[in-house]
Amino acid sequence: MFEATETLVSSIRGMAQQRDLFSDLLWIADYMKAFISQRINSEEELRLRLEQAEASLSAARDDNEALRMELAEAKSREESTDARLLEVEDEMTLLRGGGEETSGGGIYREKVERGFAVAFISAKRRVGG
User: Fold this and answer.
1) How is the chain split among helix, strand and coil, in percent rounded to 5?
2) What are the extents of the domains in the chain?
3) What does 11-22 look like in DSSP terms, one character per residue?
4) Burial 57-70 (b: 16+ CB within 10 A, else e)
């Protein structure tokens, strides 16, 4: 009978240890669930932030392209204005000169020089210098 009691007590102690181990495993499982849930929420938040950043980048690229087109149009208008200014200056030179130059070679040379100057300035502006 003593052996049976000893076996019973030993079995009960073993069950208590197993219950403690099982409780620890349940605690670990709950902790892991909480950890994974937090990770998933963080990942979803990061995914949303990435989508917002991509949308913002796309809008910035569109704005940049529109500004480039406006800049190209402005440069074209500026070149046209510069060319027209040179034409008007040439006309004013002719009107002021009153036809003093008989050969016209000086006026032609001046027009050519101004044309080269306009082309040089335009090229310099396109390059960014």
Assistant:
1) 90, 0, 10
2) 2-127
3) HHHHHHHHHHHH
4) eeeeeeeeeeeeee
**Whether the Cβ atoms of residue 116 and residue 86 lie closer than 8 Å to each other:** no
Q: Beta-carbon neighbour count of residue 77 at 10 Å?
A: 10
Residues 6 or more apart whose CB falls under 8 angstroms from that of 82 comprise 118, 121, 122
Long-range contacts of 25-31, Cβ-Cβ distance < 8 Å, separation of 24 or more: none
Q: Which two tokens stand for residue 109?
A: 């040379």
Contacts 24+ apart (CB under 8 A), 103-111: 111/86
Is pTM beyond 0.85? Reply is no
For 15-26, give one letter per residue: b (16+ CB within 10 A) or e. Answer: eeeeeeeeeeee
pLDDT, tens digit (0-9, with 9 covering 90-100), for 22-58: 999 999 999 999 999 999 999 999 999 999 999 999 9
